Amino acid sequence: MARHLITSALPYINGIKHLGNMVGSMLPADVYARYLRQRGHDVLYICATDEHGTPAELAAKERGLPVAEFCAQAHDAQKAVYDGFELAFDYFGRSSSAQNAEITQHFARKLNENGFIEERAIRQVYSPADGRFLPDRYVEGTCPHCGYDKARGDQCENCTRVLDPTDLINPRSAISGSTDLEVRETKHLFLLQSKLQPEVEAWIDQVGGEWPQLASSIARKWLTEGLHDRAITRDLDWGVPVPADTWPELAADGKVFYVWFDAPVEYIAATKEWADAAPAGEVRDWKSWWYEADDTVRYTEFMAKDNVPFHTVMFPATELGVREPWKKVDYVKAFNWLTYYGGKFSTSQKRGVFTDAALDVLPADYWRYFLIANAPESDDSSFTWEHFAATVNKDLADTLGNFVNRVLSFSKKRFGDEVPAGGEPGEAETRLGAETARLLAEYEEQMEALQFRKAAAALRALWSAGNSYLEEKSPWLEIKTDKDAAALTLRTAMNLIHLYSVVSEPFIPATARAMRGAFTLVDDTAAWVAPQEAAALTAVSAGVPFTVPPVLFAKITDEDLEGFRVRFGS
Q1: Is position 159 annotated in a ligand binding site?
Q2: N or C end: fewer C-beta atoms under 10 angstroms in the chain?
Protein backbone atom coordinates (compact mmCIF):
# COMPACT_ATOMS: atom_id res chain seq x y z
CA MET A 1 0.00 0.00 0.00
CA ALA A 2 1.03 3.61 -0.58
CA ARG A 3 2.45 5.98 2.00
CA HIS A 4 0.25 9.05 2.40
CA LEU A 5 1.46 12.27 4.01
CA ILE A 6 -1.44 14.57 4.91
CA THR A 7 -1.31 18.10 6.27
CA SER A 8 -3.98 20.71 6.93
CA ALA A 9 -3.55 24.46 7.21
CA LEU A 10 -2.03 25.37 10.57
CA PRO A 11 -4.63 27.02 12.82
CA TYR A 12 -3.39 30.35 14.09
CA ILE A 13 -2.75 30.59 17.80
CA ASN A 14 -4.84 33.65 18.68
CA GLY A 15 -8.09 32.00 19.72
CA ILE A 16 -10.45 29.09 19.17
CA LYS A 17 -11.34 28.60 15.51
CA HIS A 18 -14.81 28.79 13.93
CA LEU A 19 -16.63 26.14 11.90
CA GLY A 20 -15.42 27.63 8.61
CA ASN A 21 -11.84 27.00 9.66
CA MET A 22 -12.72 23.44 10.67
CA VAL A 23 -14.41 22.48 7.40
CA GLY A 24 -11.82 24.29 5.27
CA SER A 25 -8.84 22.25 6.40
CA MET A 26 -8.64 19.98 9.45
CA LEU A 27 -11.92 18.05 9.28
CA PRO A 28 -11.72 16.91 5.63
CA ALA A 29 -8.07 16.02 6.18
CA ASP A 30 -9.11 13.88 9.14
CA VAL A 31 -11.90 12.18 7.17
CA TYR A 32 -9.48 11.37 4.34
CA ALA A 33 -6.77 10.15 6.72
CA ARG A 34 -9.23 7.87 8.52
CA TYR A 35 -10.47 6.47 5.22
CA LEU A 36 -6.96 5.74 3.96
CA ARG A 37 -5.99 4.06 7.22
CA GLN A 38 -9.04 1.83 6.99
CA ARG A 39 -8.06 0.86 3.46
CA GLY A 40 -4.68 -0.31 4.72
CA HIS A 41 -2.44 2.59 3.68
CA ASP A 42 0.48 3.93 5.72
CA VAL A 43 -0.75 7.39 6.73
CA LEU A 44 0.91 10.26 8.57
CA TYR A 45 -1.41 13.19 9.37
CA ILE A 46 0.52 16.20 10.66
CA CYS A 47 -0.74 19.55 11.91
CA ALA A 48 0.36 22.22 14.41
CA THR A 49 -0.51 25.59 15.83
CA ASP A 50 0.94 28.56 13.93
CA GLU A 51 2.38 30.63 16.76
CA HIS A 52 4.58 33.42 15.44
CA GLY A 53 3.73 36.86 14.13
CA THR A 54 2.24 40.11 15.34
CA PRO A 55 -1.25 38.83 16.28
CA ALA A 56 0.24 36.37 18.77
CA GLU A 57 2.14 39.17 20.52
CA LEU A 58 -0.94 41.41 20.56
CA ALA A 59 -3.20 38.62 21.88
CA ALA A 60 -0.70 37.87 24.63
CA LYS A 61 -0.53 41.57 25.51
CA GLU A 62 -4.34 41.69 25.81
CA ARG A 63 -4.25 38.73 28.18
CA GLY A 64 -1.39 40.21 30.20
CA LEU A 65 0.78 37.14 29.62
CA PRO A 66 4.28 36.57 28.26
CA VAL A 67 3.81 35.51 24.64
CA ALA A 68 5.42 32.09 25.18
CA GLU A 69 3.07 31.35 28.06
CA PHE A 70 0.06 32.59 26.10
CA CYS A 71 0.93 30.37 23.12
CA ALA A 72 1.42 27.30 25.32
CA GLN A 73 -2.01 27.79 26.90
CA ALA A 74 -3.68 28.54 23.57
CA HIS A 75 -2.12 25.44 21.98
CA ASP A 76 -3.52 23.23 24.72
CA ALA A 77 -6.95 24.89 24.44
CA GLN A 78 -7.08 24.35 20.69
CA LYS A 79 -5.85 20.77 21.00
CA ALA A 80 -8.64 20.03 23.50
CA VAL A 81 -11.25 21.21 20.99
CA TYR A 82 -9.71 19.13 18.19
CA ASP A 83 -9.70 16.11 20.49
CA GLY A 84 -13.39 16.81 21.07
CA PHE A 85 -13.97 16.68 17.31
CA GLU A 86 -11.95 13.42 17.25
CA LEU A 87 -9.39 14.76 14.80
CA ALA A 88 -6.97 11.84 14.60
CA PHE A 89 -3.69 13.70 14.08
CA ASP A 90 -0.61 11.53 14.21
CA TYR A 91 1.02 14.60 15.70
CA PHE A 92 -0.17 18.12 16.54
CA GLY A 93 2.91 20.26 16.97
CA ARG A 94 3.89 23.88 17.53
CA SER A 95 5.64 26.26 15.16
CA SER A 96 7.50 27.71 18.14
CA SER A 97 9.33 24.40 18.54
CA ALA A 98 13.11 24.10 18.52
CA GLN A 99 12.77 21.78 15.52
CA ASN A 100 11.06 24.50 13.49
CA ALA A 101 13.69 27.07 14.40
CA GLU A 102 16.44 24.64 13.36
CA ILE A 103 14.94 23.74 9.98
CA THR A 104 13.77 27.29 9.18
CA GLN A 105 17.27 28.63 9.79
CA HIS A 106 18.71 25.81 7.67
CA PHE A 107 16.40 26.76 4.79
CA ALA A 108 17.37 30.44 5.11
CA ARG A 109 21.09 29.66 5.04
CA LYS A 110 20.69 27.44 1.97
CA LEU A 111 18.61 30.05 0.14
CA ASN A 112 21.28 32.60 0.92
CA GLU A 113 24.08 30.32 -0.30
CA ASN A 114 22.19 29.80 -3.54
CA GLY A 115 21.69 33.51 -4.18
CA PHE A 116 17.97 33.72 -3.38
CA ILE A 117 18.11 36.00 -0.32
CA GLU A 118 19.14 39.63 -0.40
CA GLU A 119 19.57 42.19 2.36
CA ARG A 120 17.76 45.44 1.59
CA ALA A 121 17.20 48.76 3.35
CA ILE A 122 13.58 49.87 3.67
CA ARG A 123 11.76 52.72 5.42
CA GLN A 124 9.59 51.64 8.35
CA VAL A 125 7.57 53.19 11.17
CA TYR A 126 9.59 53.62 14.39
CA SER A 127 8.20 54.38 17.85
CA PRO A 128 10.66 56.23 20.13
CA ALA A 129 8.34 55.59 23.09
CA ASP A 130 8.61 51.84 22.54
CA GLY A 131 12.20 51.93 21.37
CA ARG A 132 11.49 49.71 18.36
CA PHE A 133 10.38 49.51 14.75
CA LEU A 134 6.72 48.65 14.46
CA PRO A 135 5.47 45.90 12.14
CA ASP A 136 2.41 46.87 10.12
CA ARG A 137 -0.07 45.39 12.61
CA TYR A 138 1.56 47.29 15.47
CA VAL A 139 0.41 50.55 13.88
CA GLU A 140 -3.24 51.49 14.37
CA GLY A 141 -5.24 54.50 13.30
CA THR A 142 -8.23 55.76 11.33
CA CYS A 143 -8.90 54.24 7.93
CA PRO A 144 -8.72 56.92 5.20
CA HIS A 145 -11.40 55.09 3.20
CA CYS A 146 -14.19 54.33 5.71
CA GLY A 147 -13.23 56.24 8.87
CA TYR A 148 -12.94 53.14 11.05
CA ASP A 149 -10.77 54.23 13.99
CA LYS A 150 -9.21 50.84 14.79
CA ALA A 151 -7.74 50.06 11.38
CA ARG A 152 -4.40 48.26 11.35
CA GLY A 153 -1.35 49.23 9.33
CA ASP A 154 -1.80 46.30 6.96
CA GLN A 155 -5.58 46.24 6.46
CA CYS A 156 -8.81 47.81 7.63
CA GLU A 157 -10.96 45.07 9.12
CA ASN A 158 -14.09 47.17 8.63
CA CYS A 159 -13.89 47.83 4.88
CA THR A 160 -11.16 45.20 4.11
CA ARG A 161 -9.00 47.70 2.17
CA VAL A 162 -5.29 46.83 2.11
CA LEU A 163 -3.30 49.61 3.75
CA ASP A 164 0.20 50.81 4.43
CA PRO A 165 0.95 52.21 7.93
CA THR A 166 1.62 55.61 6.39
CA ASP A 167 -1.94 55.62 4.96
CA LEU A 168 -3.53 55.77 8.42
CA ILE A 169 -4.93 58.99 9.83
CA ASN A 170 -3.70 59.77 13.36
CA PRO A 171 -1.52 56.65 13.55
CA ARG A 172 -0.51 55.31 16.96
CA SER A 173 1.51 52.45 18.41
CA ALA A 174 -0.58 49.37 19.23
CA ILE A 175 1.87 48.69 22.07
CA SER A 176 1.97 51.95 23.98
CA GLY A 177 -0.63 54.07 22.21
CA SER A 178 2.03 56.69 21.48
CA THR A 179 1.36 58.96 18.49
CA ASP A 180 5.00 60.08 18.40
CA LEU A 181 5.95 57.96 15.39
CA GLU A 182 8.76 58.39 12.87
CA VAL A 183 9.74 56.76 9.59
CA ARG A 184 13.30 55.45 9.71
CA GLU A 185 15.49 53.25 7.56
CA THR A 186 16.14 49.66 8.59
CA LYS A 187 17.37 46.47 6.93
CA HIS A 188 15.45 43.28 6.18
CA LEU A 189 15.98 40.04 4.29
CA PHE A 190 14.11 39.56 1.02
CA LEU A 191 13.39 36.23 -0.67
CA LEU A 192 14.02 36.71 -4.38
CA GLN A 193 10.91 34.96 -5.61
CA SER A 194 11.18 36.70 -8.97
CA LYS A 195 14.30 34.65 -9.73
CA LEU A 196 12.49 31.43 -8.80
CA GLN A 197 9.31 32.05 -10.82
CA PRO A 198 10.32 29.97 -13.89
CA GLU A 199 11.04 26.97 -11.66
CA VAL A 200 7.75 27.34 -9.80
CA GLU A 201 5.87 27.55 -13.11
CA ALA A 202 7.61 24.43 -14.42
CA TRP A 203 6.79 22.56 -11.21
CA ILE A 204 3.11 23.55 -11.31
CA ASP A 205 2.94 22.52 -14.97
CA GLN A 206 4.22 19.13 -13.86
CA VAL A 207 1.93 18.45 -10.89
CA GLY A 208 -0.90 21.02 -10.94
CA GLY A 209 -2.88 19.42 -13.72
CA GLU A 210 -4.70 17.11 -11.33
CA TRP A 211 -5.40 19.76 -8.68
CA PRO A 212 -8.96 21.05 -8.26
CA GLN A 213 -9.66 24.10 -10.39
CA LEU A 214 -9.88 26.32 -7.30
CA ALA A 215 -6.31 25.53 -6.27
CA SER A 216 -4.73 25.59 -9.73
CA SER A 217 -6.47 28.80 -10.81
CA ILE A 218 -5.31 30.69 -7.70
CA ALA A 219 -1.73 29.48 -8.14
CA ARG A 220 -1.66 30.37 -11.83
CA LYS A 221 -3.20 33.78 -11.16
CA TRP A 222 -0.32 34.60 -8.84
CA LEU A 223 2.19 33.43 -11.43
CA THR A 224 0.48 35.42 -14.18
CA GLU A 225 0.67 38.56 -12.06
CA GLY A 226 4.33 37.77 -11.40
CA LEU A 227 6.12 36.75 -8.21
CA HIS A 228 7.61 39.65 -6.31
CA ASP A 229 10.59 39.63 -4.00
CA ARG A 230 9.21 39.48 -0.48
CA ALA A 231 10.54 40.62 2.89
CA ILE A 232 10.91 37.54 5.10
CA THR A 233 11.99 39.21 8.35
CA ARG A 234 10.17 41.33 10.91
CA ASP A 235 10.91 43.43 13.99
CA LEU A 236 9.32 41.27 16.67
CA ASP A 237 10.30 39.77 20.01
CA TRP A 238 8.61 36.45 19.19
CA GLY A 239 9.67 34.32 16.23
CA VAL A 240 12.46 32.25 14.73
CA PRO A 241 15.60 34.38 15.13
CA VAL A 242 17.70 35.32 12.12
CA PRO A 243 20.88 33.22 12.60
CA ALA A 244 23.81 35.31 13.81
CA ASP A 245 26.35 33.16 11.99
CA THR A 246 24.95 34.32 8.64
CA TRP A 247 23.48 37.77 9.32
CA PRO A 248 25.18 39.10 12.49
CA GLU A 249 23.95 42.69 12.09
CA LEU A 250 20.32 41.72 11.65
CA ALA A 251 20.55 39.19 14.46
CA ALA A 252 21.95 41.90 16.73
CA ASP A 253 18.96 44.07 15.82
CA GLY A 254 16.65 41.27 16.97
CA LYS A 255 15.15 40.45 13.58
CA VAL A 256 13.03 37.31 13.33
CA PHE A 257 11.65 35.50 10.30
CA TYR A 258 8.24 36.48 8.97
CA VAL A 259 5.55 34.05 10.12
CA TRP A 260 4.69 33.10 6.54
CA PHE A 261 8.29 32.03 5.98
CA ASP A 262 8.56 29.73 8.99
CA ALA A 263 4.96 28.44 9.24
CA PRO A 264 5.04 26.10 6.19
CA VAL A 265 8.39 24.76 7.37
CA GLU A 266 6.54 23.60 10.48
CA TYR A 267 4.95 20.78 8.47
CA ILE A 268 8.42 19.30 8.20
CA ALA A 269 9.41 20.36 11.71
CA ALA A 270 6.25 18.89 13.28
CA THR A 271 7.12 15.58 11.64
CA LYS A 272 10.51 15.79 13.32
CA GLU A 273 8.72 16.65 16.58
CA TRP A 274 6.64 13.48 16.06
CA ALA A 275 9.82 11.45 15.58
CA ASP A 276 11.55 13.02 18.57
CA ALA A 277 8.48 12.27 20.74
CA ALA A 278 8.57 8.54 19.97
CA PRO A 279 8.22 6.37 23.07
CA ALA A 280 11.17 4.33 24.28
CA GLY A 281 11.91 1.46 21.94
CA GLU A 282 10.08 2.97 18.94
CA VAL A 283 12.04 4.49 16.05
CA ARG A 284 10.30 7.01 13.80
CA ASP A 285 12.03 8.06 10.60
CA TRP A 286 10.78 11.58 9.94
CA LYS A 287 13.10 12.23 7.02
CA SER A 288 11.72 9.36 4.95
CA TRP A 289 8.46 11.33 4.70
CA TRP A 290 10.08 14.55 3.52
CA TYR A 291 13.56 14.03 2.08
CA GLU A 292 14.07 12.20 -1.21
CA ALA A 293 10.47 10.99 -0.86
CA ASP A 294 9.00 11.90 -4.26
CA ASP A 295 8.67 8.28 -5.38
CA THR A 296 7.59 6.81 -2.05
CA VAL A 297 5.14 9.32 -0.54
CA ARG A 298 1.89 10.84 -1.80
CA TYR A 299 1.53 14.28 -0.17
CA THR A 300 -1.94 15.88 0.10
CA GLU A 301 -2.61 19.31 1.62
CA PHE A 302 -5.99 20.63 2.80
CA MET A 303 -6.67 24.36 3.09
CA ALA A 304 -9.13 27.18 2.48
CA LYS A 305 -8.62 29.30 -0.61
CA ASP A 306 -6.92 32.19 1.19
CA ASN A 307 -4.02 29.89 2.10
CA VAL A 308 -3.55 28.48 -1.40
CA PRO A 309 -0.98 31.00 -2.73
CA PHE A 310 1.37 30.44 0.19
CA HIS A 311 1.33 26.65 -0.19
CA THR A 312 1.25 26.37 -3.98
CA VAL A 313 3.62 29.20 -4.89
CA MET A 314 5.56 30.73 -2.00
CA PHE A 315 6.59 27.63 -0.06
CA PRO A 316 7.35 25.58 -3.19
CA ALA A 317 9.60 28.48 -4.28
CA THR A 318 11.39 28.19 -0.94
CA GLU A 319 11.78 24.42 -1.31
CA LEU A 320 13.08 24.79 -4.87
CA GLY A 321 15.51 27.50 -3.80
CA VAL A 322 17.24 25.45 -1.11
CA ARG A 323 18.40 23.03 -3.84
CA GLU A 324 17.72 19.99 -1.69
CA PRO A 325 15.26 17.14 -2.43
CA TRP A 326 12.50 18.13 0.02
CA LYS A 327 9.07 16.69 -0.70
CA LYS A 328 6.65 19.11 -2.38
CA VAL A 329 2.89 18.75 -2.36
CA ASP A 330 1.31 16.36 -4.87
CA TYR A 331 -2.33 17.36 -4.43
CA VAL A 332 -3.87 20.52 -2.98
CA LYS A 333 -7.48 20.15 -1.83
CA ALA A 334 -8.72 23.73 -1.59
CA PHE A 335 -12.05 24.88 -0.18
CA ASN A 336 -14.17 27.97 -0.62
CA TRP A 337 -15.74 29.78 2.34
CA LEU A 338 -18.35 28.49 4.72
CA THR A 339 -20.37 31.61 5.55
CA TYR A 340 -22.72 32.32 8.44
CA TYR A 341 -26.12 33.30 7.05
CA GLY A 342 -24.29 34.58 3.97
CA GLY A 343 -21.79 36.71 5.91
CA LYS A 344 -18.21 35.92 6.84
CA PHE A 345 -17.32 34.11 10.04
CA SER A 346 -15.01 36.38 12.01
CA THR A 347 -12.65 35.32 14.76
CA SER A 348 -11.86 38.88 15.80
CA GLN A 349 -15.51 39.99 15.82
CA LYS A 350 -16.81 36.69 17.33
CA ARG A 351 -19.35 36.29 14.54
CA GLY A 352 -20.65 32.77 13.85
CA VAL A 353 -20.31 29.40 15.56
CA PHE A 354 -16.95 28.60 17.12
CA THR A 355 -15.76 25.06 17.55
CA ASP A 356 -15.72 25.00 21.36
CA ALA A 357 -19.25 26.39 21.50
CA ALA A 358 -20.37 23.88 18.86
CA LEU A 359 -19.25 20.99 21.07
CA ASP A 360 -20.98 22.60 24.02
CA VAL A 361 -24.26 22.48 22.08
CA LEU A 362 -24.15 19.04 20.42
CA PRO A 363 -21.76 16.06 20.09
CA ALA A 364 -19.03 16.12 17.47
CA ASP A 365 -20.64 13.69 15.03
CA TYR A 366 -23.54 16.07 14.36
CA TRP A 367 -21.05 18.72 13.26
CA ARG A 368 -18.67 16.38 11.45
CA TYR A 369 -21.41 14.98 9.24
CA PHE A 370 -23.13 18.29 8.51
CA LEU A 371 -19.91 20.11 7.66
CA ILE A 372 -18.57 17.43 5.31
CA ALA A 373 -21.97 16.84 3.68
CA ASN A 374 -22.11 20.59 2.97
CA ALA A 375 -18.41 21.27 2.42
CA PRO A 376 -17.74 24.42 0.33
CA GLU A 377 -15.97 22.59 -2.48
CA SER A 378 -17.29 24.04 -5.74
CA ASP A 379 -18.44 27.35 -4.27
CA ASP A 380 -19.15 29.06 -0.96
CA SER A 381 -21.79 27.43 1.23
CA SER A 382 -23.83 29.06 3.96
CA PHE A 383 -24.38 27.79 7.47
CA THR A 384 -27.84 28.44 8.87
CA TRP A 385 -29.39 26.83 11.90
CA GLU A 386 -32.41 25.86 9.85
CA HIS A 387 -30.28 23.97 7.30
CA PHE A 388 -28.25 22.36 10.07
CA ALA A 389 -31.36 21.13 11.87
CA ALA A 390 -32.95 19.83 8.67
CA THR A 391 -29.80 17.87 7.77
CA VAL A 392 -29.37 16.39 11.24
CA ASN A 393 -33.02 15.42 11.55
CA LYS A 394 -33.37 13.91 8.07
CA ASP A 395 -30.02 12.21 7.50
CA LEU A 396 -28.78 11.35 10.98
CA ALA A 397 -31.86 11.02 13.17
CA ASP A 398 -34.39 9.67 10.67
CA THR A 399 -32.33 7.81 8.08
CA LEU A 400 -29.51 6.29 10.15
CA GLY A 401 -30.46 6.56 13.81
CA ASN A 402 -34.06 5.49 13.40
CA PHE A 403 -33.03 2.50 11.25
CA VAL A 404 -30.59 1.24 13.90
CA ASN A 405 -33.07 1.74 16.73
CA ARG A 406 -36.01 0.15 14.90
CA VAL A 407 -34.07 -2.95 13.88
CA LEU A 408 -32.38 -3.66 17.20
CA SER A 409 -35.32 -2.74 19.42
CA PHE A 410 -37.82 -4.80 17.43
CA SER A 411 -35.49 -7.80 17.24
CA LYS A 412 -34.81 -7.65 20.98
CA LYS A 413 -38.52 -7.46 21.72
CA ARG A 414 -39.52 -10.36 19.48
CA PHE A 415 -36.41 -12.60 19.38
CA GLY A 416 -34.37 -11.75 22.47
CA ASP A 417 -30.75 -10.65 22.93
CA GLU A 418 -29.18 -12.64 20.10
CA VAL A 419 -29.22 -12.16 16.34
CA PRO A 420 -32.07 -14.30 15.01
CA ALA A 421 -31.43 -17.04 12.44
CA GLY A 422 -34.33 -17.06 10.01
CA GLY A 423 -34.42 -18.64 6.59
CA GLU A 424 -32.14 -18.43 3.57
CA PRO A 425 -31.71 -15.11 1.73
CA GLY A 426 -34.16 -14.56 -1.09
CA GLU A 427 -34.62 -12.21 -4.03
CA ALA A 428 -34.97 -9.10 -1.85
CA GLU A 429 -31.69 -9.86 -0.05
CA THR A 430 -29.92 -10.48 -3.36
CA ARG A 431 -31.11 -7.11 -4.70
CA LEU A 432 -30.10 -5.42 -1.46
CA GLY A 433 -26.62 -6.98 -1.56
CA ALA A 434 -26.07 -5.84 -5.14
CA GLU A 435 -27.26 -2.32 -4.34
CA THR A 436 -25.11 -2.17 -1.21
CA ALA A 437 -22.01 -3.25 -3.14
CA ARG A 438 -22.76 -0.68 -5.87
CA LEU A 439 -23.23 2.19 -3.42
CA LEU A 440 -20.14 1.21 -1.47
CA ALA A 441 -18.10 1.30 -4.69
CA GLU A 442 -19.50 4.77 -5.43
CA TYR A 443 -18.63 5.91 -1.91
CA GLU A 444 -15.07 4.61 -2.32
CA GLU A 445 -14.74 6.30 -5.71
CA GLN A 446 -15.75 9.69 -4.32
CA MET A 447 -13.49 9.34 -1.29
CA GLU A 448 -10.53 8.45 -3.51
CA ALA A 449 -11.29 11.54 -5.59
CA LEU A 450 -11.58 13.72 -2.46
CA GLN A 451 -15.10 14.73 -3.45
CA PHE A 452 -16.51 14.98 0.04
CA ARG A 453 -20.05 16.17 -0.67
CA LYS A 454 -20.50 13.38 -3.21
CA ALA A 455 -18.99 10.88 -0.78
CA ALA A 456 -21.48 12.00 1.87
CA ALA A 457 -24.32 11.60 -0.62
CA ALA A 458 -23.17 8.04 -1.39
CA LEU A 459 -22.95 7.24 2.33
CA ARG A 460 -26.43 8.67 2.84
CA ALA A 461 -27.69 6.50 -0.02
CA LEU A 462 -26.21 3.45 1.71
CA TRP A 463 -28.16 4.31 4.85
CA SER A 464 -31.31 4.89 2.79
CA ALA A 465 -30.96 1.47 1.15
CA GLY A 466 -31.42 -0.13 4.55
CA ASN A 467 -34.60 1.82 5.18
CA SER A 468 -35.97 0.90 1.75
CA TYR A 469 -35.27 -2.78 2.43
CA LEU A 470 -36.94 -2.57 5.83
CA GLU A 471 -40.04 -0.93 4.37
CA GLU A 472 -40.18 -3.51 1.58
CA LYS A 473 -39.92 -6.50 3.92
CA SER A 474 -41.89 -5.00 6.85
CA PRO A 475 -40.75 -7.47 9.53
CA TRP A 476 -43.44 -6.12 11.89
CA LEU A 477 -45.96 -7.62 9.42
CA GLU A 478 -43.89 -10.66 8.43
CA ILE A 479 -43.73 -11.87 12.01
CA LYS A 480 -47.51 -12.30 12.11
CA THR A 481 -47.41 -14.96 9.38
CA ASP A 482 -43.80 -16.10 8.92
CA LYS A 483 -41.47 -15.78 11.90
CA ASP A 484 -38.46 -17.14 9.98
CA ALA A 485 -38.95 -14.52 7.25
CA ALA A 486 -39.02 -11.74 9.87
CA ALA A 487 -35.88 -13.17 11.48
CA LEU A 488 -34.08 -13.19 8.12
CA THR A 489 -35.05 -9.57 7.51
CA LEU A 490 -33.77 -8.50 10.92
CA ARG A 491 -30.53 -10.49 10.62
CA THR A 492 -29.90 -8.90 7.21
CA ALA A 493 -30.65 -5.44 8.61
CA MET A 494 -28.24 -6.08 11.50
CA ASN A 495 -25.55 -6.90 8.99
CA LEU A 496 -26.26 -3.56 7.36
CA ILE A 497 -25.79 -1.87 10.73
CA HIS A 498 -22.42 -3.56 11.09
CA LEU A 499 -21.46 -2.50 7.56
CA TYR A 500 -22.55 1.07 8.36
CA SER A 501 -20.41 1.00 11.50
CA VAL A 502 -17.31 0.22 9.42
CA VAL A 503 -17.75 2.50 6.42
CA SER A 504 -19.24 5.48 8.32
CA GLU A 505 -16.25 5.73 10.65
CA PRO A 506 -14.42 8.49 8.68
CA PHE A 507 -17.49 10.75 8.99
CA ILE A 508 -19.00 9.89 12.38
CA PRO A 509 -16.43 7.93 14.43
CA ALA A 510 -18.25 8.00 17.79
CA THR A 511 -21.49 6.76 16.24
CA ALA A 512 -19.60 4.13 14.29
CA ARG A 513 -18.16 2.80 17.55
CA ALA A 514 -21.62 2.70 19.12
CA MET A 515 -23.06 0.75 16.18
CA ARG A 516 -20.16 -1.66 16.08
CA GLY A 517 -20.22 -2.11 19.84
CA ALA A 518 -23.84 -3.21 19.71
CA PHE A 519 -22.66 -6.65 18.55
CA THR A 520 -20.55 -8.98 20.70
CA LEU A 521 -18.42 -10.33 17.89
CA VAL A 522 -15.28 -12.37 18.57
CA ASP A 523 -12.26 -10.96 16.74
CA ASP A 524 -14.17 -8.20 14.95
CA THR A 525 -11.11 -6.75 13.24
CA ALA A 526 -12.68 -5.71 9.93
CA ALA A 527 -11.02 -2.53 8.74
CA TRP A 528 -13.17 -2.18 5.64
CA VAL A 529 -15.85 -4.09 3.72
CA ALA A 530 -14.90 -5.89 0.51
CA PRO A 531 -17.41 -5.89 -2.40
CA GLN A 532 -18.26 -9.57 -1.95
CA GLU A 533 -18.81 -9.00 1.78
CA ALA A 534 -21.09 -6.05 1.04
CA ALA A 535 -23.12 -8.22 -1.32
CA ALA A 536 -23.30 -11.20 1.05
CA LEU A 537 -24.12 -9.30 4.28
CA THR A 538 -23.08 -12.18 6.53
CA ALA A 539 -20.52 -10.60 8.89
CA VAL A 540 -22.95 -10.86 11.81
CA SER A 541 -24.21 -14.43 12.09
CA ALA A 542 -27.18 -15.88 13.96
CA GLY A 543 -26.66 -16.30 17.69
CA VAL A 544 -24.36 -13.31 18.14
CA PRO A 545 -25.36 -11.37 21.30
CA PHE A 546 -26.32 -7.73 20.80
CA THR A 547 -27.49 -4.75 22.80
CA VAL A 548 -29.59 -1.75 21.85
CA PRO A 549 -27.41 1.37 22.12
CA PRO A 550 -28.82 4.68 23.38
CA VAL A 551 -30.45 6.92 20.79
CA LEU A 552 -27.72 7.74 18.29
CA PHE A 553 -29.03 11.14 17.23
CA ALA A 554 -31.65 13.27 18.95
CA LYS A 555 -33.80 15.39 16.70
CA ILE A 556 -33.35 19.14 16.86
CA THR A 557 -36.68 20.71 17.87
CA ASP A 558 -38.12 24.13 17.09
CA GLU A 559 -37.41 25.05 20.71
CA ASP A 560 -33.76 24.01 20.25
CA LEU A 561 -33.55 26.12 17.11
CA GLU A 562 -34.87 29.19 18.87
CA GLY A 563 -32.30 28.69 21.62
CA PHE A 564 -29.49 28.43 19.07
CA ARG A 565 -30.61 31.62 17.34
CA VAL A 566 -30.73 33.50 20.63
CA ARG A 567 -27.31 32.26 21.69
CA PHE A 568 -25.45 32.63 18.38
CA GLY A 569 -27.52 35.15 16.42
CA SER A 570 -28.58 34.76 12.81
Answers
A1: yes
A2: N
pLDDT at 371 over 80: yes
| Under 8 Å between Cβ of 187 and 121 | yes
DSSP E strand boundaries for 192-319: 230-231, 233-234, 256-257, 297-304
Superfamily of domain 398-545: Isoleucyl-tRNA Synthetase; Domain 1 (1.10.730.10)
Structural Rg of the chain based on CA atoms: 27
> Quick one: CA torsion of 290, 109, 258, 9, rounded to 10 degrees?
0
Per domain, the residue ranges of the chain are 3-113+260-335, 117-191, 398-545
**521-530, pLDDT tens digit by residue?**
988 999 999 9
Beta bridge partners of 45: 6
**Nearest in space to 441 (alpha carbons), one of 372, 511, 533, 376:** 533
Q: Report DSSP letters for 394-424, one per residue.
A: IIIIIIIIHHHHHHHHHHHHHH-SB----S-
Domain 3-113+260-335 bears CATH identifier 3.40.50.620:
yes
Bridge partners for 557 per DSSP: none
Identity at 550, one-letter amino acid code: P
The CATH class given to the 117-191 domain equals mainly beta
H-run or E-run covering 113: helix 98-113
- What does DSSP say about strands 338-340 and 132-133: parallel, antiparallel, or unpaired? unpaired
Count how many residues are written for the chain. Answer: 570
Backbone angles phi, psi at 352, to 5 degrees: 110, -165
Is residue 143 part of an annotated ligand binding site? yes
Are the CB atoms for 121 and 186 separated by under 8 Å? Answer: yes
Cα separation of 197 and 194, whole Å?
5
Contacting residues for 388 by C-beta, under 8 A, at least 6 apart: 370, 556
Could you give the CA distance from residue 503 to residue 154 in angstroms, rounded to a whole number? Answer: 47
**Is 156 flagged in the annotation as binding?**
yes
Each residue's pLDDT tens digit, 542-560: 999 999 999 999 999 999 9
